[in-house]
Amino acid sequence: MNREIYRGKIDDRVMDDAFKAVASKHLDMTDQSWDCDIKTSYNLTDNILNVKELWPLKMSILNHINEYMFSKEKYFDGYIKKSWVNIYEENFYQEYHNHKDDCVKFICGVVYLTSSMSDIEFYIDEPRIRISPNTGDVLLFDDDVLHRVLPNKSENKRISLAFNYQKCQQWRGLT
Questions:
Q1: Any idea what the Cα angle at residue 7 is, between residues 3 and 50, rounded to 5°?
Q2: What range does the domain containing 127 cover?
Q3: Dihedral of CA 135/112/108/52: which sign?
Q4: In the list 8, 50, 112, 152, which could disulfide-bond 88, CB 3.0-4.6 Å?
Q5: Contact present, 61 and 8 (Cβ < 8 Å)
Q6: Could you tell me if residue 152 is inside a domain?
Q7: CATH number reported for the structural domain that contains residue 63 in this entry
Q8: Dist CA 128 CA 25 (whole Å)
Q9: DSSP code per residue over the chain
Q10: Would the pTM of this model clear 0.85, i.e. be above it?
Q11: Is residue 24 a part of any domain in this protein?
Q12: Domain for residue 1, yes or no?
């Protein structure tokens, strides 16, 4: 299995509009009781990319998902099943986890709405892969890849938007 991490960039204008849309809703987000410190939009909706103001971001993400699939030479029909915002205040972090599901397969990803003061770390093989993301970066990876967010060492909030693209049917090409 090819377990690479795809890294792309979302247009600055799209990112600015997405940040404004998320900022207008961030006070409604609550603490999540995963084994970490984090605030998330999960209490508001299970697919925040369906908010109209975030549609341009959703379309940009789908373009990157297509690039990722074509780079792996495996294209799947599908859709973004879940998406949520994560807010990391000072010393907030996310423990190692993956997005595996017993019934379906996903392409997982994260878009960075602010510059990061904390890295994301992927545990694929030794050595672990550590990435210092910038505003507008989009990272894509398979659902079984373990990953975590290291503690935010800044007073500035680290804001990201994560998503799962559900693979429905593999395209078999032209017959």
A1: 100
A2: 6-91+100-143+158-170
A3: negative
A4: 152
A5: no
A6: no
A7: 2.60.120.620
A8: 34
A9: -----EEEE--HHHHHHHHHHHHTTGGG-EE--SSSB-EEGGGT-SBGGGSGGGHHHHHHHHHHHHHHHHHTT--EEEEEEEEEEEEE-TT-BEEEE----SS--EEEEEEESS--SS-EEEESSSSPEEE---TTEEEEEETT-EEEEPPP-SSSPEEEEEEEEEEEEE-----
A10: yes
A11: yes
A12: no
Condensed to tens digits (0 to 9), the pLDDT of residues 39-98 reads 888 778 889 999 999 999 999 999 999 999 999 888 999 999 999 998 888 888 888 888
Residue with tokens 């997982």: 108
Indicate whether 148 belongs to any domain: no
Q: Are 172 and 73 in contact (CB under 8 A)?
A: no
Q: What is the pLDDT of residues 101-134, one digit of tens each?
A: 888 899 999 999 998 667 888 988 777 889 999 9
Token pair for 171: 């395209």
Task: State how far the Cα of 8 lies from the Cα of 140, in Å rounded to an integer.
Answer: 9
